[in-house]
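DM between two lab members

TW: hey, do you still have the RING-type E3 ubiquitin transferase entry open?
JB: yeah, one sec
JB: this one, 196 aa:
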Amino acid sequence: MSVSYAVAAGSNQSEPQLPLCPYFEMGECNNENCQFVHGLICDMCSRACIHPYDEKQQKQHFAVRFFSSSIIDFYLMVQECLQQHEMAMEQAFAEAKGKGKCCGICMENIMEKSLRFGILENCRHCFCLDCIREWRRNQTFDTEVVRSCPECRQHSNFVIPSILWVEDEEEKRILFEVYRNNMAQKQCKYYKVQNA
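TW: and the structure you got?
JB:
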């Protein structure tokens, strides 16, 4: 825990009365002799907004105060804090699913190489987007063969580009719906619309 210059120098103000450093709270304080207190980082909102010496302020940040005039504001702040924490957790879990996944064609670790996954509609095999697109462009084999998974030969009509690995059937269904909706908004480069 860092102690501010004002506290170390024996400021006349008591420690709980010293305000939090607004720069440190937003992520960075460049002043080595800062006159403010550098807050502790909240596990939920990841901000340095907890006063290390003010128990009242700590309780206000962590617990709902019933019968308070600002209960709605406080409740909304806690809800936002929890939502940010949940989103960060979901993102971390989603990224963790793809760690160690190697392309079934080039055998490269997809996330280590900062490549995108090429997710097939009807199978769970893992490929990087470039390799599976190259496989499907192959003109020497029948269309039915190149539209199938190179490993299990399960036919898939779509290859979805994704920065995250999706294996769960429900997540995959949602991913395909979003992809189809996005593609429906774009004009096909092979179909030219004639203006009337």
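TW: got it. The chain has seven helices and two strands. The radius of gyration is 27 Å.
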